Amino acid sequence: MKTTHRALLSWPLATVAVAFACSAQAQMATGTTTTPQSRDMNAQPSSSASTGPRQMYSSDSFSVVPYSTNGYIGLNIGQPDWDIPCTGGGAFGCSESNTAYNIYTGGMFNQYVGAELGYVDFGKFERGGGRTRAAGLNLSLVGHLPLGAFNLYGKIGTLYGRTNVSSNPISGLATGKRSGWEGSYGVGVGYQLSQRSMVVLEWNKYNLDFADVGRRDITTTSLGYVHRF
Fold first, then answer.
1. Do 188 and 76 meet the contact criterion of CB atoms below 8 Å apart?
2. pLDDT digit string (tens) for 154-205?
3. Most exposed: 65, 94, 108, 218, by fewest CB within 10 Å?
4. Cβ proximity of 220 and 204 under 8 Å
5. What is the number of domains present in the chain?
6. For position 202, which CATH number holds?
7. Residue 90, exposed/middle/buried by CB under 10 A (0-12, 13-18, 19+)?
8. Distances (CA, A) of 157 to 37, 42, 116, 138, 205
9. Which domain does 153 fall in, by range?
10. What is the pTM of this model?
11. Residue 50 included in any domain
């Protein structure tokens, strides 16, 4: 399982690294083309210093999501809640994972609707003398409601989840790996720190399939940071 788990983790980290490199290159290009005329324009009410909702959207900005603009990357870290019973007899300890993280990138089709692709790791659940692990790739449609410096949003999509259940043979728990597409949805609120950065608070629910208990939900409550390209 360690090999599979690391393989799931390696590609999203590489994607984020490439996205950061593209963001840095775009910012350098912007910095080299600044002119006195553009500084005069920034002094107007519609300048980038304004925190109005329309200043957060640019129809010609970079995005790694096809057919979208105004791209961004983000990292959320939070608390998972597994809807899985702590079974396996009193002889074994039971400890639910206390950390989940989500690495993601997204883009906007217009000011109010966008799409997001991410990797979610729910950590591990110690039970039955073994470990239950869960992770997945998530694709969501995202609806935004800009409110000045704040941004309310909702997500609905699908998760390609992978789970692995191991246990002590005497616990009686079924073991094995499961994978497949299941539903996901969530809501959140963001606060704009600057033209390119935002902090977010999110709640999400994901449905996954486990070898011993079948389909169960995992919910996460997390804090995150979003950087716009």
1. no
2. 999 999 999 999 988 888 888 999 999 999 999 999 999 998 999 999 999 9
3. 94
4. yes
5. 1
6. 2.40.160.20
7. exposed
8. 44, 38, 9, 7, 10
9. 2-43+55-228
10. 0.73
11. no
